[in-house]
Amino acid sequence: MTLSQNFLRRAAVAQRLVDVYGVGPDDTVVEVGPGSGMITRELANRASPVIAHEKDEKYVRLIQLKFAGNDHVTCVNVDFC
Question: DSSP letter string over 19-38?
Fold first, then answer.
């Protein structure tokens, strides 16, 4: 099986995605494949908790570092399948 990764480069796109889906402060969000955390950041600003599932250990460590001071975000190293 081949895996594909796509990464957002513009924060405005992540903001718009979260806007469109109407994510709010009372929502629990499960994010599959957060990658570098562009959408995770927007989700963390609006929802609680955000539980990110990432298969690649490199990105798990990155997310854990980026959100180390944010109790709303948890990143676990798992294959979501």
Answer: HHTT--TT--EEEE--TTSH
